[in-house]
Each structure stands twice: as structure tokens, then as C-alpha cells.
Amino acid sequence: MTFRSILLVLIGAGTLATAPAASAQQEDPDPFSMVLTGDSIITRRLSVYEEPEFLTMIELIRSADLAFTNLEMLFHDYEPFPMHESGGTYMRGDPCLAEELVWAGFDMVSRANNHTGDYGVMGQRLTREYVEAAGLVHAGTGEGLRQAREPRFLETAGGRVALVSVASTFPDHCRAGSTFGDNPSRPGLAPQRYSSTRIVTSEQMQALREAMIRMGSRVPSDESRLRAFGRRFEVGTEPGTRTEPHRGDLEENAASVRSGSLLADYTIVSIHAHESGQGRSVPADFVETFARAMIDSGADVVVGHGLHVLRGIEIYEGRPIFYSLGDFIFQNETLLRLPEENYAPYGLERDEATVAEFNLRRYRNDERGFPANREIWESVVAWLEWEGDRLTAVRLHPITLGFGLPRSQRGRPMFASGELARKILEDLAERSEPYGTSIRIRGDKGEVVLP
Fold first, then answer.
1. Which of the 8 DSSP states describes residue 191?
2. What is the CATH number of the domain that holds 44?
3. Is residue 306 a contact partner of residue 324, using CB atoms and an 8 Å limit?
4. Which of 228, 230, 168, 224 minimizes the C-alpha distance to 199?
5. Which residues contact 172 (CB under 8 A, 6 or more apart)?
6. Which domain holds residue 208?
């Protein structure tokens, strides 16, 4: 429930004695529009391009009251050193690129993701400085856990918007910490950790128990559960993995959402999660539990990203959950420099350690990995409309990031059309069906059928 709707309830109940009486016929509120996108890994300027499909997309973003993307990038001039562990490729872009996102129409960015700590605390702080200087509202990182979890706010003519940003996928060194006052708090990101339980058959459990006994380990009398080899096992009807959110993180993130929803007209929750269920396009169990809990705590929208593919859409209690909006900008192949830690796994010595050679080795001349996976380069821009606290429209604009183009060109989004647009929308419709969500496709656009 938004702050506006709570205020109306209080007035209607006579709690605010000094509030003026409501008129017999109130005017309908002006519509409020949001644009939501997935991951933005930006290493090149956007403002130099002129294709109609690109500029039309930019105009759509600019026309919204609010535009959001996940900033999966650090901005600095290589003042900080790279950490010993990263979220994959060490992400860094020229500081001027923060202004390119503003040029494109973006207002808010989430910053909690697996690349937050690639260049340590200094990298986080410099990124904050450049993002704020560009005028972007950001959430998900801070000088300590409390600050990283807190909602951040955007003022618009149509309403105040809160953003809470968390990540479940990250190297543990970049998780923000708390303090009792005797030590400084650890800067970092807002986490949403989780636990995993492997579901096995009775026969598999018996084999595990026997192996533990042979190793001289004690086993519990309960034959349906076992902790072994650093994992939890449980007997079930269908083998697989069950995940559950860390309760402490869930409660603290929910508290941030409640605070934000009482101080804003609309609240967005962002989660960066690589974890999957049965296949890349299916979120892990804990992500679904988390998303619904955030709606229950007052969020108006939950938007996921992380694994670079589209996942389904759920309308829960009248609020949309985008389990993943995939990629919006994916320019991870045109970084200026990479540290030794990226080159070493591919046997690249100093004289051959270049970004170009790294790409060739990593992707085997584009025959594997991201360049060979079409769905990495297909996504949607989501357009939402609200009337007060009522969701009235969710429109889906398919985009292509240039699958199959040279790496100097691919990674920049523009509207898709024709067969490709329909294919993207049909994929999303199929992935949304298990949540009871229907998507109506008309031409090159889709629209969620709202309850």
C-alpha cells in the first residue's frame, strides 16, 4: 500500500481530525508511467547513434515519469586496484558513461550486483561519486549494511519513488557489514543470502549415510535428513534443489521496503540473482519467496536481473514481479583493461594478455558462451502505467542487442520488429504462463492481461 492510499484510509476513518472533508466527486489521479529495464553493462557512448529503431526506443524511455536500469558497471579511471576475486569479468567504464545513461532518459539505478566489489571499496565510492554527479538516484550499496539496505528516493512531478536494491549473487568480500561501534562498518552491497537443500531419493540417502559411516562420521537417527560434504540433503519425491531465503536478510530487506513505501508514492525493489530453478529461464525458489514477501511488505514493483535472460512475469496481489528483464546494454567485450586474474585461467601471459585475446579464448571465436547464445541478446523494455496505486497497464517492447554482429557493434539495444519481436514476446509469454500470466501480442508489442 502506498503512502497516498494510507493517507486516504486515515482520512476516511476520521483519524486525521484536521483533514478537510473529501469532495463528493474526486478527480481521477493523473497516470504515472515507469520504464523498467534489465542489466546495463555499458562501456561505450550511446548518444552518437542515429538509427530510427534506437532513437525511438530512447524517446520511449525519456517519455516516462521514471526510468530504471540495473547498473552492472563501475566508473573510475583505474585509481583502485582489482580485488583478488570478482563477479566474473572485472567491470569498469569511463566515468562519462554515467551521463550517457542520463542522456538516454534514466533516473534511477540499482547497484547491488556481483560486480559491485570488482575494484574494492574505492571502486564503489568512485562509482557513487560519478553516478550522483550525473544526477542518477542509486540504491544497494553503502558505507555499511544499514546504509546499503536503505531506500533511496526520486522526486517527480507525478509522485515520489523509492528504490531498494539487493543481490543474492556476489563474492562474499563485497557484502556490507554492521558494527557494534568498536570497529568501522564494512562498505559493500545489500545482500539477500539463501540456503540450498539437495532433494534425493531414499536409495540415494541410504548410500550417503553408508558412505558417511565408512568414513567414521556419525549420522543422525532421522533417515530423511543429512548434512554431509558441506551440504544439506533431504529425502523427497523428485530429486532437485530447494532454496530458501536467509530469514535475517529477508526481514531486514522487508523493513527497508516498509519504510520506503511509507515515505513514497511508489516503491521499486530490485534483486540481482543468477540462481536458477529448472533451467536458466526459471528463478530459484528463494527468489519467488523473496519477491512475494517484498510485495507483502509494501513494494509496488519487483524487478529482477542477473543471469542475462528473460524470465517470467507474475502479477501478485495486483503488483508486477519481473523475475528477470535480461539485458538492456551488454558491452562486456569492449572493456579497456582487465587484470591478471582474468587472463590467468586462459593461460595468457603478459605479451599476449589483451582484451581482444581474452575474448577469443573465453568464447572460442564466438562458438560458445554469451556470443553463441541468442537469448542473451534479446529482451524487453517494460512500460508500466498507474492511476494512483492501481496498476492499469504493463506493455512490453521487445529489443535486440545485435546477436551475431561483430563485438564492436553488438551489445547496444534497439527495438526489434517482425519475426524477432514476436519470437521474444512468445518466449516471455511461455515463461510467464506458469504464474497464470497471459501476454497479448499485437504486432511488435506485447501487453500483460491484468486481472
1. B
2. 3.60.21.10
3. yes
4. 224
5. none
6. 202-235
Nearest-angstrom CA–CA distance, 411 and 54: 12
Same-domain check for residues 299 and 380: yes
Residues 6+ apart with CB under 8 A from 450: 315, 391, 392, 393, 394
Q: Are residues 383 and 433 in the same domain?
A: yes
pLDDT for 216 equals: 80
Residue 240 lies in a domain: no
Q: Are residues 317 and 180 in the same domain?
A: yes
% of residues, the chain, pLDDT over 70: 94
Within this chain, do residues 231 and 256 fall inside the same structural domain, yes or no? no
What is the pTM for the complete model shown? Answer: 0.90
| Residue among 349, 346, 242 nearest 289 (CA) | 242
Residues of the chain with pLDDT under 70: 1-27
Q: Using CB atoms within 10 Å of the CB of residue 351, give its burial: 0 to 12 exposed, 13 to 18 middle, 19+ buried.
A: exposed
Q: How many domains does the chain have?
A: 2
On the CB side of 402, CA atoms within 13 Å amount to 16
Could you give the CA distance from residue 234 to residue 236 in angstroms, rounded to a whole number? 6
Spell out the residues 6+ positions from residue 40 whose beta carbon is closer than 8 angstroms to its own: 69, 70, 71, 72, 73, 101, 109, 328, 329
Q: Is 111 exposed, middle or buried (0-12, 13-18, 19+ CB in 10 A)?
A: buried
Instruction: Please report, for residues 35, 107, 127, 136, 444, the alpha-carbon distance to residue 67 in angstroms, rounded to integers and kept in the order given.
Output: 5, 5, 19, 10, 21
Q: Is there a single domain that holds both residue 137 and residue 51?
A: yes
The answer on 425 and 276 residing in a single domain is yes
Distances, alpha carbon 388 to alpha carbons 181, 251, 318, in Å: 43, 27, 13
